[in-house]
Amino acid sequence: MFLEHVPAAVAMFDRDMCLIACSRRWLADYDLEGQSVIGRSYYAVFPQTDDQWRDIHRRALAGETLHCDLERFKRGDGSSDWIQWEIVPWHLPEGGIGGVMLFTQKLTGIVENDERARAVKRQLDLLIDNVQDYAIYMLDPEGRVSMWNDGARRLFGWHEEEMLGRHYERLFDALDNAAGRPRMQLSRAAREGSFRDRSLQLRKDGSHFLADATLCRIRDEHGVLIGFGRVVHDITDEAEWRRMIAANETQMRLILETIPDAMVVIDETGAIQSFSAAAEKLFGYTVPEVLGHDVGILMVEADAMRHGDDLARYGATGHGHVVGHSRRVIGRRKDGSTLPLELAVGEAKLGTRRVFTGFMRDLTRRERADAQLRELQNELSRLARIWAVGTMATALAHDLNQPLAAITNYVQACAQMAEQGESGAAGAMGDALAAAGQEALRAGAIVQRLREFIARGELALSREQPDVLARQSCALVMAGSAHANIACRVIMPDDVKPVLIDRVQIQQVLVNLLRNAVEAVGVHGSITITATEQWDMMRISVIDNGPGIAPDIAGALFDPFSTTKSTGMGLGLSICRAIVEAHGGILWHEAVPEGGTAFHFTVPMVIRGPEEFNND
Question: Could you confirm whether the keyword Lipoprotein appears in this record (predicted)?
C-alpha cells in the first residue's frame, strides 16, 4: 500500500531483477500504466537496456548503492527522458540481499526548459554581439558595469574584463565627469524610467564619437531597482561631424573676435595656430601674416629666446614657468615698436597633440598711469615737505633750544671764571668752550638735516651702535648741575646689534624723549634706556618713574601743538614720530605697572651680509 500511494517513482526488484512492486508514479513516468508488469523481468519490460545498466544492476545486487544526478534514459520507441536515479540493495530478514530498490525522478521538463533558456540566451548574445554600431551593457544600481557585449567592445575599445565592475563614468571625458553628467543620468533614469540624450562619448584611445544613448532602469517583480541597461548608438556620420565642426569653428571665431585680451594659440614647436582679432589690433599683423610662423616674431629677441628655451624645457620635462604663471614680457609690433605685455599661458591636449594658448594684455596704459601716479606722489610729497617748512621752522626753535641753551651756559661759565680771575681756570674754560663748540656743531647738523629733508626727503643712513647713541644722548641732556640728582642708566647687552639710522635725527628723538622724562621725574628721579631685538627691527625704550600721563591727554599726545607745558610748543613728540616713521618704525607709549611711563620706538637693524659672516 505504501508503494501504491507514495508520490515518487519507486520500483522493487528481486535478485533476478523481476519486478515485485512499484508506485503509480513509476508506472506513469515510464508509460506502463494499465500493463501487467509485476513478476516480469526488468529486461523484458525495458528490452533496450544496455550493458552499462546491466553492470549497475549487478553492482547493486552485490551490495553497492549507486546514484546519478542526471542521465538520459532511452525508450523503446526511440524517445528519451532525462532522469535522476538512485539504486540500493534491500535485505532479507535473515540478512542476505533480497534484491534492489530503484528510485527515479524525471527531469525532462526542467532540462528542456533550461536548454531552451540557454538556447535563447545564446541566440540573444549572438544577436547583441552582432549588432553593428550599437553598444549594449548592463549596470548595477550604483552604475558599475555588470554585462558588456561585444558591440560595446567594438564601439568603445574596452574589453569585457577591463569594464566589469568599473563605473561607467569611465566612458565620459573629464569635463562631463566634473559636471556630474553620469550621476545625473542615473538619477533621471531611476526617477523617470529612462533617459536619452545625444552627446560626444569617449573611446579608450581618447577619441570621441557622436552617440545617441538611452539609459533604462530595470526592476524585479517586486518593483525593486536592480540595475540599468544602456544602449549606445553611434550616429557619427560625415555630415553630422561637419556640422559640429562648423559650429565649433563659428563659436571659436566669435570668441577670438570678441575676447578683449590678445589671444594666440601655438603648437609644441611654437608655431602660431590661431590669432585673435584683438591680437591683430595689438600687433598690427593680419591672421595670414602670422599663421605658421614662430611666436617669437611677437617678442623682442631676448624674450623670444627665453620663451623658446622655456617651451622646450617644459616639453621635455613637464616643468618650468611656461604654463600657469603670468609674467611681464616686451612685445614687438609689426612696425618694430615695442610695448610691455602681461603674458599668461594655458595648455590643452587635442588627442595626442598639445597646444598652448597665450593671453596677452597691453600694460602700456597701466605702466604710464603708474609712472604718473609715482610722479604725482613725489610732487605731493615735495609739496607736503614745503608746506611743512613753516612747522619745521617752528620745530627748529624747539630742537635748537637745547644746544643753544647749553652753549649759553658754557659761555656764561667761562665769562664768570674770567671775571673772577681764578688761577688754574684756563683748563676748565677750555673744556667749557670745547663743549660749547660741540653743541654749536650739533645745532648746525640739525639745520643741515632739515635742509636736506626739505630738498630730497631722504635720510643720511649710517651704521650706529644703540648703546653709544644712548650714552651720548644722556650726556647731552644731563649736562649741568640742575640734573645732578637724576639717574640716567643705559642697560643694553655688550653685543647689542648695530642699527641703520640717520644718527642726528634719531639722536634728536632720544634727546626729546629724555628731556620730557627729566621734566616728568623731577628731583631724585630715574630714567632707563634699553634695547630689544624684534625680528629685523630694534626696539629702543626710554622708561621713567614719574607720575605717568593723564588719560585725558594720552590720546592726543602725538598731535602737533598738543602740550601740557606752559612754555612748550607741542611739536616735540609729533616731530619724533615723523622721524621714526621715516625710518620705517613706529613710536608709542605705555604706562609702567610700577609707576611711570615708557616710550618705545623701533628702527631697522643692520642685516649682516655673507661677507661679514666670513670675516667672523
Answer: no
d(CA 458, CA 198): 71
Length of the chain: 616
Q: How far is CA 481 from the centre of its chain?
A: 70
The interaxial angle of helices 364-420 and 503-521, nearest 10 deg, is 60
Query: Can you give 2-45 as a three-state secondary structure string?
Result: HHHHCCCEEEEEECCCEEEEECHHHHHHCCCCCCCCCCCEHHHH
CA distances from 204 to 153, 186, 207 (A): 10, 22, 7
Bridge partners (DSSP) of residue 18 are 41
Other C-beta atoms closer than 10 Å to the C-beta of 476 total: 20
Give CA–CA dist 297/610, Å, rounded: 43
Please choose, from the candidates 32, 76, 82, 50, the residue with its C-alpha nearest in 3D space to the C-alpha of residue 22.
32
From the number of C-beta atoms within 10 Å of its C-beta (0-12, 13-18, 19+), residue 505 rates as buried
| Predicted confidence (pLDDT) per residue in 202-223, tens digit | 899 988 888 889 999 999 888 8
The 3-state DSSP class for residue 462 equals strand
In a domain, 180, yes or no: yes
In angstroms, how far is CA 201 from the centroid of its own chain? 29
CATH number at residue 160: 3.30.450.20
The domain boundary, picked from 336, 362, 388, lies at 362
**Considering only CA atoms, which of 526, 528, 516, 521 is closest in space to residue 573?**
516
Q: Give the integer Cα–Cα distance in Å for 581 and 297.
A: 49
What pLDDT shows up at residue 616?
A: 46
Q: Are 311 and 299 in contact (CB under 8 A)?
A: no
Whether residue 319 sits in one domain with residue 278: yes
**pTM score of the predicted model:** 0.33
3-state secondary structure of 124: helix
Cell numbers describing residue 555: 590720546
Which of residues 315, 339, 362 is at a domain's end? 362
HEC profile for 202-258?
Answer: ECCCCCEEEEEEEEEEEECCCCCEEEEEEEEEECCCHHHHHHHHHHHHHHHHHHHHH
Contact 329/345 with Cβ under 8 angstroms? no
Which segments within 514-561 are labelled E, that is strand?
526-534, 537-544
Neighbours of 152 (CB within 10 A): 25
- Cα-Cα-Cα-Cα dihedral of 298, 303, 308, 311, to 10°? -100
d(CA 290, CA 108): 81
Give the residue, 550 or 252, on which the prediction is more confident: 550
Examine the domain organization and report whether 356 and 376 are in the same domain: no
Q: How confident is the model at residue 403 (pLDDT cuts 50, 70, 90)?
A: confident
Judge if 601 and 506 occupy the same domain.
yes
How much is the pLDDT for 251? 73
Whether 213 contacts 201, CB under 8 Å: yes
Element (H, E) at 405: helix 364-420
